[in-house]
Write a structure and sequence with these properties.
It is built from 5 helices and 3 strands, in the order αββααβαα. By secondary structure, it is mainly alpha-helical.
């Protein structure tokens, strides 16, 4: 029964991540088609713009031209998220964490696909009042997920809620079964 639940979680992850990644890739396709080599488009003048950028680094311009490092880092994070999802207990208490796993996975895959296919990430959303770095939909998934995860860990989950992540020897696992 436990194995069936875990497989179902991964199927949900695959479908959710595929849909969210599809949305990210579609918006990037539109950005290339309509924004590349064009003037910025003001959605809200002096606030929000569509601005095409080929980002060869990570968030905030870090790790420029470090494709191998960024691909490995993203892959490790995705493996970690899959591990958490595999171990995640069933129940609505952990539903927020499950949803965040889906969003982080979609964001990671969206930008990873760009890096592998194009050698850069297509960014196109610019928030000018604070001169925020240009970003994309996948970045929104990851950033919002990380902020929500921080808040959930701080105010919703307790330390004991994360006992499921502790490594157990095969003997301990056998005793629990």
């Amino acid at each position: 029964m436990e194995q069936k639940r875990r497989i179902q979680s991964f199927l949900e992850l695959a479908v959710s991540a595929a849909a969210l990644t599809g949305l990210d890739q579609w918006t990037k396709f539109l950005a290339v088609k309509h924004l590349k080599d064009q003037a910025d488009i003001a959605l809200i003048p002096n606030v929000l713009y569509l601005h095409y950028l080929e980002n060869r680094g990570a968030a905030f311009g870090m790790f420029q031209n470090q494709k191998v490092f960024l691909v490995l880092l993203t892959s490790l994070i995705l493996i970690g998220v899959c591990y958490v999802l595999w171990k995640l207990p069933e129940g609505k208490h952990f539903l927020p964490l499950k949803i965040l796993c889906f969003l982080i996975t979609a964001g990671g895959i969206g930008n990873l696909a760009d890096r592998l296919r194009l050698n850069y990430v297509v960014d196109f959303i610019y928030f000018s009042p604070i001169d925020f770095p240009v970003f994309n939909i996948a970045d929104i998934y990851v950033t919002v997920s990380m902020v929500l995860l921080f808040l959930l860990v701080l105010f919703y989950y307790k330390d004991e809620d994360f006992q499921f992540l502790k490594w157990k020897s095969p003997k301990q696992q056998e005793q629990e079964s």
